[in-house]
Design goal:
The protein contains three helices and five strands. It is α+β, with helices and mostly antiparallel strands. The protein has one domain: HIT-like (HIT family, subunit A). Strand 1 and strand 2 form a beta hairpin. The structure holds adenosine monophosphate and zinc ion.
């Protein structure tokens, strides 16, 4: 954890551009923004992925992300907002301290977030059963 980039930012050991802070989360500007205003909302307690955060901290991350998203929409920085969280390397996560992206989106900005596939006949029901059996 001592080597964690975001823990160091939270501890004030690395410079950042801070948008918001309370006792549970901070929000900063992403250093390599998709568009200007791209923010990261980061819980102060270290966890690798959003999937492992407490209900309370996860809820506060979402609450602050919503506030920043609404603020962006009031400026000329955003026509829309994408809220996204990568969980694990396969999803594109590169910093392994939980964070939610608040990405200001502009009409025609060209960001493509994911591809679209399709299900074979009956496959959707099988997949749904696999997932439902693991839901706790
Ligand atoms: P992810 O790929 O979901 O793990 O996102 C990590 C994000 O952290 C990327 O968008 C990076 O641009 C951003 N990032 C990396 N280093 C810093 C930093 N020192 N300050 C702010 N954002 C950073
Ligand atoms: Zn950390």
């Amino acid at each position: 954890m001592n080597d964690c980039l975001f823990c160091k930012i939270i501890a004030g050991e690395l410079p950042t551009t801070k948008l918001y802070e309370d006792d549970q989360v901070i929000a900063i500007l992403d250093i390599m923004p998709v568009n200007p205003g791209h923010a990261l909302v980061i819980p102060k307690t270290h966890s690798e992925r959003m999937l492992e955060t407490s209900e309370e901290e996860g809820a506060q991350v979402l609450s602050v992300a919503k506030r920043i998203g609404k603020a962006l929409l009031e400026t000329n920085l955003a026509d829309g907002v994408t809220l996204s969280v990568n969980n694990g390397e396969a999803s594109g996560q590169t910093v392994f301290h939980t964070h939610m992206h608040v990405i200001p989106r502009l009409n025609g900005d060209g960001l493509v977030s994911w591809k679209h596939g399709e299900y074979e006949d009956g496959e959707a029901d099988k997949i749904a059963t696999i997932v439902k059996n693991q839901l706790t």
